[in-house]
Amino acid sequence: MKKVVRDFIESNKGKTGFLEHEVKGLLRNLGLPVPSGVFVRSGAAIPAIPDLHYPVVAKVSSRKIISKSEVHGVRSGIRDDDDLKKTVEELARIEYAEGVLIETMAPQGVEAIVGGIVDTQFGPVVMFGLGGIFVELFRDVTFGLAPITKEGALRLIKQVKGFRLLEGYRGSPPVHLDALLNIISSVSDLMATGLIEEIDLNPVALYPEGAMVLDAKLSLHPQT
């Protein structure tokens, strides 16, 4: 784990922040599930993308844009080359845009948030919560000290009020808990390296047969 993170830091030497596709590249190297995609720098032509299939989603990429949705920087349901070209050009004109990330559009799932921070009192901490109104209205999140085992991660997710959604509720199938536990324990291991200041995987889509990290942000510890 630590070697993969150090290699990531070395290959991005001098950067104070990371674009979404760079963070997802790290996650992919750690074996975490992320969508297939390609980053197109502003002003560049869209390359051939053999492993990408419509419909796709296109998202503005920038180290200065905190919320893509606030600048209308996410477009989903793109179904052909002409629509994609037009959309990429529009997104690239958004202020501070460094490029556009094009990804295979993931199916809808139960949304969760997995994150990690370095707390001034407790040190590395991992966080889990359900997405949507659960986190926005109910602040339905739990925290644990990193590193955390899969057994510890299971205890963590059972503490959220909306846990029944993960087990299957009103006819919906249960999510693949082991895939979620793997993501939580991997984020925990990342935080335990002492190299990461903060990581935010939001949302993570949960399915009956797996999971997918749909958006990711990361910042390094100041001393790295």
In short:
The protein has 2 domains: 36-105, 2-Layer Sandwich (Dna Ligase, domain 1), CATH 3.30.1490.20; 110-220, ATP-grasp fold, B domain (D-amino Acid Aminotransferase, Chain A, domain 1), CATH 3.30.470.
Structural notes for this entry:
The strands form two sheets. Strands 5, 6, 7, 8, 9 and 10 form a six-stranded antiparallel sheet that branches. This protein has seven helices and ten strands. Helices cover 29% and strands 29% of the residues. The radius of gyration is 18 Å and the shape is globular. Helix 5 (150-157) packs across helix 7. The chain folds into two domains: 36-105, ATP-grasp fold, A domain (Dna Ligase, domain 1); 110-220, D-amino Acid Aminotransferase, Chain A, domain 1. The two termini are 15 Å apart. The mean pLDDT is 92. The chain has helices spanning 2-11, 20-29, 81-92, 133-136, 150-157, 163-167, 177-192, and strands at residues 37-41, 56-61, 74-78, 99-104, 110-119, 123-130, 141-145, 196-207, 210-213, 216-220. Strand 5 and strand 6 (123-130) form a beta hairpin. The protein is of the alpha+beta class.
Topology:
Blueprint: H1 2-11, H2 20-29, E1 37-41, E2 56-61, E3 74-78, H3 81-92, E4 99-104, E5 110-119, E6 123-130, H4 133-136, E7 141-145, H5 150-157, H6 163-167, H7 177-192, E8 196-207, E9 210-213, E10 216-220
Antiparallel strand pairs: 1-4, 2-3, 2-4, 5-6, 5-8, 6-7, 8-9, 8-10
Helix pairs in contact: 5-7
Briefly, what CATH class of the largest domain? Answer: Alpha Beta
Any idea what the CATH architecture of the largest domain is? 2-Layer Sandwich
Radius of gyration: 18 Å
CATH topology title of the largest domain: D-amino Acid Aminotransferase, Chain A, domain 1
- Low-confidence residue ranges: none
Number of helices: 7
Helix content: 25-40%
**Average pLDDT figure:** 92
CATH superfamily of the largest domain: ATP-grasp fold, B domain
